[in-house]
Design goal:
75 residues; elongated
Length: 75
Amino acid sequence: MRQVLSLSLPQQTTKDIKKSAKQRGFESVSGYIKYLFDSDKDLISEIELLSSIKSAREEYKKGKSIEAKSLADLL
């Protein structure tokens, strides 16, 4: 079942969203907004990123890293 979501946005923002949706090949603003929402789910938070960096630094300090000359060295 579909539901309507109403947003209150400045006129220029609305124009920009419609323009971006059209430029990116979406048939509707709804499709574009759904795409953006789904894309946002794949992003990690700032907290997760900082935690990952901290963990990587600790591993590096403990000597658990390798020096790779190319990506092939990692595989």
